[in-house]
Here is the input.
Amino acid sequence: MEFNFSIGKEKHAVNFFTIITQEGISVFMTGGNKTHVGGVVLNIPRKSLTGTGISSDSWVIPVPGHKDVIVAEEVGQKICRETGEITAVTAGIHIDHAAPEDLDIIRQNCLEGARRIIEGYKNRT
Here is the structure.
């Protein structure tokens, strides 16, 4: 199953390209002023150390000088924990001269995208 969508407006828009396979979920998040690959995060589900629920282990590969993996890790962990699926997130989101408010809006848009992906996963046929 493949689905694409965008969340946000103008420089805060984040585009999601998602593929749900038989054994895992792949997400590519792009946006801002320059589409690129800024890093990749792989999340593997595992039993929570508390003994209840699912957690995940993450492997983070940033492109030097890029911070895209910060939000990619958060999105990947959320999707992995809530679906129990291996999740790979590639991110490339850049806003020229971003203010802290810009980064917060981008983060919220990314988390909303994660929520939609989880919903799509749970509602697939």
